[in-house]
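On clarity, I found the account of how folds are encoded harder to follow than it need be. Since the whole study asks how a given chain folds, the encoding of that fold should be made plain. The format is easy to grasp once an entry is in front of the reader. For illustration, here is how one protein appears when written out as sequence plus structure tokens.
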Amino acid sequence: MSKRFTFADAKQKIKDLEQQLEKEAAKAKTKAGNLILDTSDNVFTQKELGRIRFLEIWSVLGPIIGFLIGLIF
């Protein structure tokens, strides 16, 4: 006879799946970051510095623009 699937087994399975999902999410974040900037060599090219500058500017202007659009509509 097979072992019965209990509530404790279900909790353990959920915990295992959550850990697996966290690992996959961390990998995805790393891949997404590497698409914008190549951090493998710890040296930023002029193109990458331009992207960093854009992201710094957007981090300030984005919320301001969003707030203004929210006021309009």
About this structure: DSSP finds two helices and no strands in the chain. The longest helix spans residues 7-36.
